[in-house]
Design brief:
Blueprint lengths: L5 E4 L7 H12 L4 E4 L4 E4 L5 H11 L9 E2 L3 H8 L4 H10 L4 E6 L14 E5 L4 H10 L3 E2 L1 E2 L11 H8 L5 E4 L10 E4 L5 E4 L5 H11 L2
Helix pairs in contact: 1-5, 4-7
């Protein structure tokens, strides 16, 4: 925990390099930061460091059997650190990334065990937000992206709410203003035959249409 969180303002369309580098440095050191995404604010930490993952659970007061989703800079970063995508996953990534589609893929052995919540799988997406993608790129690997709220409380698009509710538990808040909000990302399990795990911003019918087009 920290009692001296820094709040750094960042341009959502053209994020300042020094702000992105500061965020990446905190993450590489095992810190936990709040960052904007194309939906809500999220908590970013290094998913390959067990202590950092444990801190995320502590910040949220979250049960350890609930997996933590990840964000990545692009599909290439996903395959480099989590493994190759299946044909279905690759088709969905090409169609909907960057965007609010989370793909549930087999967990890479290097991931901290706490990331998967004991499921053996991990959700990942490439967000349609310059700041979030830039942080992933600066870190050189995907980062966690669970919503920036205490477990059981509403997720938020407002950085003021993040600071008020979690400020004493974070190292850094990257403030890009109020994020778009709206529905959460749609989650699709692609570890076997694709199936809907959580309805969200992308309609399941659109997911099926993409998959069916790829099979023709």
């Amino acid at each position: 925990m920290t009692s001296a969180m820094r709040r750094v303002f960042v341009d959502p369309g053209a994020p300042q390099r020094d702000a992105i580098q500061e965020a990446a440095t905190w993450i590489r050191r095992g810190g936990v930061i709040a960052l904007p995404t194309d939906t809500l604010y999220g908590l970013a930490a290094d998913p390959f460091l067990a202590d950092a993952v444990a801190r995320v659970y502590g910040v949220k007061g979250r049960d350890a059997d609930r997996a933590l989703p990840l964000l990545a800079a692009d599909a290439a970063q996903v395959t480099a650190h989590l493994g190759p995508l299946s044909s279905s996953a690759a088709a969905l990534a090409a169609r909907f990334w960057p965007g609010p589609l989370t793909l549930l893929v087999p967990a890479a052995p290097r991931l901290a065990p706490g990331v998967t919540g004991g499921t053996g799988a991990v959700g990942v997406r490439v967000p349609a937000h310059e700041v979030a993608r830039a942080i992933c790129a600066a870190c050189g690997h995907p980062v966690t992206a669970t919503s920036a709220n205490r477990s059981g409380e509403p997720a938020t698009a407002d950085p003021d709410v993040v600071e008020r509710t979690l400020g004493d538990r974070l190292d850094l808040l990257l403030d890009a203003g109020v994020t778009p909000g709206g529905p959460p990302s749609t989650i699709v399990d692609v570890t076997a035959e694709p199936r809907l795990v959580r309805a969200g911003a992308i309609a399941w019918d659109d997911v099926l249409a993409c998959l069916n087009n790829g099979r023709r």
